[in-house]
Amino acid sequence: MQAISMTEPAGFAGNGEMHDFGPDPSLSLDMAAMLLNAYEIGDMINQSAEVAEYAYWKKAVDQSQEVKELVRKFEKAKELFEECQRFGRFHPDFHSAKDKVKAIEKELAAIECVSRYKTAELAVDELLHDIAKQIAGSVSETIKVPGNESSGGGCGGGGSCGCSTGGGCG
């Protein structure tokens, strides 16, 4: 057995040779296989009812002349509001510009294809977030999954972080 110098950095033998203390190469992660599995999961997600519903309503929104006209009106109203916003609530048109933007948003939300599209988009988002949580949980229960603010979880929200302080973990 060869003695290891206590003054040399870890992994060096006294003769200057490097020892391999890393993981066994035969146990290394096969990235190609993992990518293939990821593509398979992606294909399964793309074949789901949630994605089919999302794609249907997205196409309906994209083809709707009513939506296109309201989006143009919205963009003009938003541009005016942003101009007013530079001066804050003291701009003489600030409140009317803000009200106009909100009114057009409400009109857009009242269109069936838009409301159904938003509902379908949320369903796909929840599906993807659930899958991400499942993958992260299979690695460790302490892995945090970002995104999906609608879930209400996270630190201080009584969610999955396990924090019992009732506030931020920072």
UniProtKB/TrEMBL annotation:
Transmembrane segments: none
Coiled coil: none
SUPFAM superfamilies: YheA/YmcA-like
PANTHER family (alphabetical): REGULATORY PROTEIN YLBF, REGULATORY PROTEIN YLBF-RELATED
Protein name (record): YlbF family regulator
Organism: Paenibacillus nasutitermitis
